[in-house]
Amino acid sequence: MAENIGYEVVGELIQRRKSVHHSYTIGPGRLNDLKRLVEGNDADTVIFANALTSSHVFKLTEFLGGDVRVIDRNLLILEVFDKRAFTNEAKLQIRLAKLKYTLSWGREFIKLRGIMGEQLGWMGPGDYPYQEYYRAARNRISRIESELEDIYQKKMLKRDHRRELGFPIVALAGYTQAGKTSFFNLIAHEDKTVGLGPFTTLSTFARKAYAGTNPDSPEFIIIDSIGFIEDMHPIILKAFHATLGELATADLVLLFIDASDGRFSLERKVRSCAQILREIDMTSPTIICANKIDLTTPEQLDEAVAIIRKYFPKEDIIPASVRTQQNVDRLLTSAESELQAQSLIVRPRKPQAPH
Ligand SMILES: Nc1nc2c(ncn2[C@@H]2O[C@H](COP(=O)(O)OP(=O)(O)OP(=O)(O)O)[C@@H](O)[C@H]2O)c(=O)[nH]1
Ligand SMILES: [Mg+2]
Fold it and tell me: Using one digit for the tens of pLDDT, what is the confidence trace for 283-293?
């Protein structure tokens, strides 16, 4: 992820510990290795794969020398989001997540000026400035929340209107880079950006699509949205709550899984999809697309399906390739039957005007 947004990774360190070291996360021996690694490579940033507390960040920064930035996986995810936020909605969601995340660090945050990019006019240590910072941050948070509320209301009105017109809503879900937007582009004849790396898509997009190729194919609304990643901090997840909420209210969810991933990372991703769907209370009927089968051998695919089955025992799993379009029609037919089973009004396409 770091490389994807322009970091050059010059070294890696791993430590297995029974518990997190109270001051530095890692133990004293590893800490010295880290310092050597940083100095030997002239590194300017240290990224922890786990989440850090503000006091860890502060102590690590102090130990490594003031010029070295120490960030954790949540701050890295927020940096990725920053690079990808093109819509006003996504920009606001990210600003909100950043503010809430750093605010959750409390007073420690004020010692960590400079790590977040966005500054809040903080002047220096002491109680009074912290109160100032706190007040300014709270004000900003409520302003952003009400701006976002407006955006969500408008989207919701639009969605209710579509529902009144009788269009069922089909939402795409899945780990980041599973192929959701590629599928969206294919069936909605769109040209949204794909494949930039993690979190290529941050905002939701809704388009009308047809569940088939013949003129009587039913129409539905397809929604593309943000991908998942494991261990997302609740604050970050919450900032995208309304976006993810689109999934909870959809008539049908198509869950995309990259079946070409290695066993270990496939399972990790499937597990985190199941967990996030649980966290957002997603109870909509779900069909799973085991995507990218153009890259798998039949054995690999069998293994992938077995892993998916462990976490999704009841759902239909349809192996497909959005790239070669293999089985995409099967996926659409399945979606169509599910919508029909729910007796959702499925409008036929308007008849062609006579020539
Ligand atoms: N080989 C192969 N590649 C695919 C297939 N579907 C999508 N891809 C590629 O996978 C990458 C990610 O695709 P996206 O459509 O951006 O994935 P996404 O799920 O929308 O990702 P986020 O927006 O980050 O959540 C792109 O490089 C696609 O070209 C497929 O069936 N086969
Ligand atoms: Mg996408």
Answer: 899 999 999 99
